[in-house]
Design goal:
The structure holds two protein chains of two kinds. Chain A is mostly helical. Chain A has one domain. Chain A is 68% helix and 0% strand. The longest helix of chain A has 15 residues. Chain A is globular. Chain B is α/β, with parallel strands linked by helices. Among the domains of chain B are: 92 residues, Ubiquitin-like (UB roll); 205 residues, 3-Layer(aba) Sandwich (Rossmann fold); 198 residues, Dimethylsulfoxide Reductase, domain 2 (3-Layer(aba) Sandwich); 128 residues, Barwin-like endoglucanases, CATH 2.40.40.20. Chain B has a seven-stranded mixed β-sheet, covered by helices on one side. A six-stranded mixed beta barrel of chain B has the order 31-35-32-34-33-36. A five-stranded parallel β-sheet of chain B has the order 20-17-16-21-22. In chain B, strand 6 and strand 7 form a beta hairpin. Classes of the chains: A mainly alpha, B alpha/beta. Chains A and B meet through helix 1, helix 2 and helix 3 of A and helix 22 and helix 24 of B. The structure holds iron/sulfur cluster (SF4) (3 copies) and FE2/S2 (inorganic) cluster (FES). Chain A: This is Formate dehydrogenase subunit delta.
Chain lengths: 76, 946
């Protein structure tokens, strides 16, 4: 069974793939928007922490998405 | 309501220009095409009749309804003679009375004279007619040849056929043909020897009969009669209510004798069903009285312990204090809840209110997550509203019907019958489904095209259809220009025109010959009004939302949205899927599909409810379970849903539930989820409460209480008890007040009140100032979102792949006689039709594995293993296997994976890579599970009171 982090990375990757025909930049923006609309704050902060944490291997697209998510999160 | 039979006008309604005539001296004006019989009934003149009833075309066989028409010779039958302008009709003369009496004498001479002890005494048209024609005596005597010794057919568990009581009026045969479309009955023999027979004289149960009850309802005598009427007697009052099974939303007269339900009779004025029904709503309501129902609240500290029955007070206080304790220890977001599509709008509204107002978070989800969440996402994105576009009546104006990933004759039977009727009238049918569903070929119905695609390739196939439509110039350009976002259209058109998306290019992927895809696309685009109906074979995929949008794209490109006869129509699974979604059951949306981040919408609720609402979306069911295994989500309130059985990857669900500290289940029965519960709150049935359901057409209909809740409270009252124990101070005394609140806070429901529903029978939302009578067809002049939005839907293959270990694709579905996880239907005689889930497998695949019909087989996927028996059939293509999921012992969801729709996480039930092998019996998992379930269901016997 996937861990929660693995699942979040997988979910983000799946969303990116469904927007892929728009080109990488637009796909990341659309994925971020999707995450903003549908993920709960706990999922968002987990995802935002992933690029800086060892553990789950992230695809380039997912890494870029989560980094932007991290940068857009209000500082806590 | 006291008991009166519904008025029978004798023949169906006509719609022509007004025609005036005189009947028994009375001036009448009726639409051309109306029969004299109906015209007379409209002015309260009941012409005697036996073979006519207004649900069927007139037949003219009994000769009871003769009338005199000035200037015409003879005595024409009023049921088969249409009105004409200036006609002068007499319905009562000495001659007519004599003729009718003569006819009646013949009937009665061959009829048992046991009226006083007959089950239909007082509710029999033959008896009424004998009275109406003044029959006093039978000149022919009763000694001649007759049919009085005929053998009863009691094979159907719900009704009995007694040929001795049959007058061979053929109403039953015609009901089966015209209304139900099954054609199971025939009149065998001729003249005196003629008799009614099910299929080839096999008896009802063994025949093709699907037990819809239309013949029973049409029968004027007790020849076909419900067993419950035989057992309990004729009803003495009737209450109109709505079926609690599927999203068709048939309305019924619950016919009662005191507090006891005698029978459910489909209501002729019901706008969703027009007097028809299926076996579930009509007959399978016995679960409501089943001995397995739990009637007292129960509590336990740990799921290893037996249940302890407690008072309602103790249970409610326990729930409230546990939830507050968890929030104090683990945070506000550590609890949540799940609303049920089985419950009323008012109940789901209250559950989400409890969560948002009382729990202080948005952790509310609903069972629609696992069925139609992609419909919500897809149709909202493209059209601007999360709902189907038409009413069911629309199908009568469809010229081409495309059914994709739905099996209406099993899943939505009453709509299936109407669809078949339209197809018999000449509309063309396209079926896109891996399986050869009944609609592909059944009596007098044949699909023009069946595209048996490989499961998981919907998007590729629909895009290829779009390719044909765009590249062959079949787009309705004016419509697109005027009604849609043209820039988005341009991008989409360029995308689908790519040769890589042509039918030829994807032929190998989908397994559907390119020529068939082209032909189907051309037919849909050029065949007149094109209507698309779809089901869970569309949504329950990793690209469920994309498929919904691909469907919406096709409909917009061909100008098929915003008019009767066309549209995009999701066939909703459960009775109130539409309603539960409307009521704000998703973690990101307030009632009326307004995002929780929408500060204007939030402010409205905050003002009404006196709290500040969370502006962040909550957790979806699967994320709640993940969070539970991670230790951050600890308590859940689950109303009317069995997530352990119905959600994918049972092992994952079980692990999530097991990790929580307070699982509260409210249900009728100790369901599978309750094995992991700490509190069980007994639920009430739809017969025991007031409220409303919203069906697949957005039609809001009343559910009316016909008996007191056996568990003490209606479900909405239980939610209120919990809310008040948590300090919310709710004061509802009737669900109508909840509806008033819904209307106050939800623009699409602004004009809905119980009074409106009582007056009009039902209304389809939006109901507001602009549409006070509701909205049968949506997006008529413009889309709700303004311009229709074409969305590029790239095909992304599912990650669930076949390979050497798992070479077959499993897809799942349901069958007519059972319902979803079967909690209700398995507790009824419907078991006679489907006592176990079977695995359908193609003869080649079976032979390669040494499997014979009926053998036990092991079904394995990457997620788990189960066993069931095989059914060898070429309904499924080689490489594909299929099963239903109605029985907990099968646990088909042990097999399904947790892959899900990219946008909504709706599980990918329809594609699982599996292997099938001969087996000796239940798997280890099934045995362990059964043992655990038995252990968990123990109820401590209470100490006798001192
Ligand atoms: S069973 Fe009833 S409906 Fe059918 S032919 Fe006999 S009397 Fe008529
Ligand atoms: S119950 Fe329905 S399907 Fe069966 S014979 Fe009667 S009308 Fe036909
Ligand atoms: S079609 Fe659906 S709503 Fe109608 S009776 Fe059957 S189960 Fe009930
Ligand atoms: S009712 Fe008209 S012929 Fe039977």
């Amino acid at each position: 069974m996937m861990s929660t982090d693995e699942r979040l990375a997988y979910m983000a990757d799946q969303i990116l793939r469904n927007f892929a025909s728009r080109g990488q930049e637009a796909a990341i923006a659309a994925t971020l928007d999707h995450i903003g609309q549908f993920w709960d704050p706990g999922m968002k902060s987990r995802a935002a922490a992933m690029p800086d944490a060892p553990g789950v291997v992230l695809s380039d697209g997912v890494r870029a998405t989560f980094m932007r998510l991290r940068d857009s999160q209000p500082a806590s | 309501m006291t008991f009166t039979r519904e008025k029978d006008f004798g023949t169906p309604e006509a719609t022509g220009e007004a025609v005036s005539l005189t009947i028994d001296g009375q001036q009448v004006s009726v639409p051309a095409g109306t029969s004299i019989m109906r015209a007379a009934a409209m002015v309260e003149t009941a012409i005697p009749k036996l073979c006519a009833t207004d649900s069927l075309e007139s037949f003219g066989s009994c000769r009871m309804c003769l009338v005199e028409i000035e200037g015409r010779k003879g005595y024409p039958a009023s049921c088969t003679t249409p009105v004409a302008s200036g006609m002068v009709v007499r319905t009562e003369t000495d001659k007519l009375r004599k003729l009718r009496r003569g006819v009646m004498e013949l009937y009665i001479s061959d009829h048992p004279l046991d009226c006083l002890t007959c089950s239909a005494n007082g509710d029999c048209e033959l008896q009424d007619m004998a009275g109406a024609v003044g029959l006093r005596d039978v000149r022919f005597g009763f000694e001649g040849a007759n049919h009085l010794e005929g053998c009863k057919d009691e094979s159907n568990p719900y009704f009995t056929f007694d040929p001795a009581k049959c007058i061979v009026c053929s109403r039953c045969v015609r009901a089966c043909d015209e209304v139900q479309g099954t054609l199971a009955l025939t009149v065998d023999g001729r003249g005196f020897a003629s008799k009614i027979s099910a299929s080839q004289g096999e008896g009802f149960l063994a025949s093709e009969c699907v037990s819809c009850g239309a013949c029973v309802q049409a029968c004027p005598t007790s020849a076909l009669i419900e067993n419950t009427v035989i057992e309990k007697g004729t009803p003495d009052r009737a209450v109109v209510t709505t079926c609690a099974y599927c999203g068709v939303g048939c309305t019924f007269r619950a016919e009662m004798r005191g507090e006891e339900l005698v029978r459910m009779v489909p209501w002729k004025e019901g706008k969703a069903n027009h007097g028809h029904s299926c076996v579930k709503g009509r007959f399978a309501w016995g679960y409501a009285q089943h001995r397995d129902r739990i009637l007292n609240p129960m509590v336990r500290n740990s799921v290893d312990e037996p249940w302890r029955e407690v008072s309602w007070d103790e249970a409610i206080v326990h729930v409230a204090s546990e939830f507050r304790r968890i929030q104090n220890s683990y945070g506000t977001r550590a609890i949540g809840g799940i609303t049920s599509s089985r419950c009323t709008n008012e109940e789901t509204f209250l559950v989400q209110k409890l969560i948002r107002q009382g729990f202080g978070n948005n952790n509310v989800d609903t069972c629609a997550r696992v069925c139609h969440s992609p419909t919500g996402y897809g149709l909202k994105t493209t059209f601007g509203t999360s709902a189907g576009t038409q009413d069911f009546d629309s199908v009568e104006q469809a010229d081409v019907v495309l059914v994709i990933g739905a099996n209406p004759t099993d899943g939505h039977p009453v709509f299936g019958s109407r669809l078949k009727k339209r197809l018999r009238e000449g509309a063309k049918l396209i079926v896109i489904d891996p399986r050869r569903i009944d609609l592909v070929r059944s009596p007098h119905v044949e699909a023009a095209h069946h595209l048996p695609l490989r499961p998981g390739t919907n998007v590729a196939l629909l895009t290829a259809m779009a390719h044909v439509i765009v590249t062959e110039g079949l787009v309705d350009e004016t419509y697109v220009r005027e009604r849609c976002d043209t820039e988005a259209y341009g991008e989409w058109a360029a995308f689908v025109s790519d040769p890589a998306r042509s039918p030829e290019a994807i032929e190998e992927l989908t397994g559907v010959p390119a020529a068939d895809v082209c032909a189907a696309a051309r037919l849909y685009a050029t065949g007149g009004n094109g209507a698309i109906y779809y089901g869970l074979g569309v949504t329950e995929h990793s690209q469920g939302s994309s498929t919904v949008m691909a469907i919406a794209n096709l409909a917009m490109a061909t100008g098929n949205v915003g008019k009767p006869g066309a549209g995009v129509n999701p066939l909703r699974g459960q009775n109130n899927v539409q309603g539960s979604c409307d009521m704000g059951s998703f973690p990101h949306e307030l009632p009326g599909y307004r995002h929780v981040s929408d500060s204007v919408a939030r402010a409205q609720f905050e003002q009404d409810w006196g709290v500040t609402l969370d502006a962040e979306p909550g957790l979806r069911i699967n994320n709640m379970l993940d969070a539970a295994t991670d230790g951050t989500f600890k308590g859940i309130f689950i109303q009317g849903e069995d997530i352990l059985q119905s959600d994918p990857n049972t092992t994952h669900v079980a692990a999530g539930l097991a990790a929580m500290e307070c699982v509260v289940v409210q249900d009728l029965f100790l369901n599978e989820t309750a094995n992991y519960a700490h509190v069980f709150l007994p639920g009430s049935t739809f017969l025991e409460k007031d409220g409303t359901f919203t069906n697949a057409e957005r039609r809001i209909q009343r559910v009316r209480k016909v008996m007191e809740p056996k568990n003490g409270y209606a479900d909405w009252e239980v939610v209120q008890l919990v809310a008040n124990a948590m300090g919310l101070g709710w004061t509802y005394t009737h669900p109508s007040q909840v509806m008033n609140e819904i209307a106050r806070l939800t623009p699409t429901f602004a004009g809905v009140t119980y009074d409106v529903l009582d007056q009009r029978g039902s209304v389809q939302w939006p109901v507001n100032e602009a549409a006070p009578d509701g909205t049968p067809t949506m997006h008529i002049d413009h889309f709700v979102r303004g311009k229709g939005l074409f969305v590029v839907t790239d095909y992304v293959p599912t990650d669930e792949r076949t390979g050497p270990r798992f070479p077959l694709l499993l897809t799942t579905g349901r069958i007519l006689s059972q319902y979803n996880v079967g909690a209700q239907t398995r507790r009824t005689p419907n078991e006679a039709w489907h006592a176990e889930d079977r695995l359908e497998i193609h003869p080649h695949d079976a032979e390669n594995r040494g499997i014979r019909d009926g053998d036990w087989v092991a079904l394995r996927s990457r997620a788990g293993e189960t066993t069931l028996r095989a059914l060898i059939t070429d309904r499924v293509a080689p490489g594909v296997v299929y099963t239903t999921f109605h029985h907990p012992d099968t646990q088909a969801n042990v097999i399904t994976t947790d892959f899900s729709d990219w946008a909504t996480n709706c599980p990918e039930y329809k594609v699982t890579a599996v292997q099938v092998a001969p087996s000796n019996g239940p798997s280890d998992w099934q045995r362990r599970y059964r043992a655990q379930a038995d252990q968990s269901r123990r109820i401590e016997t209470a100490e006798p009171a001192e």
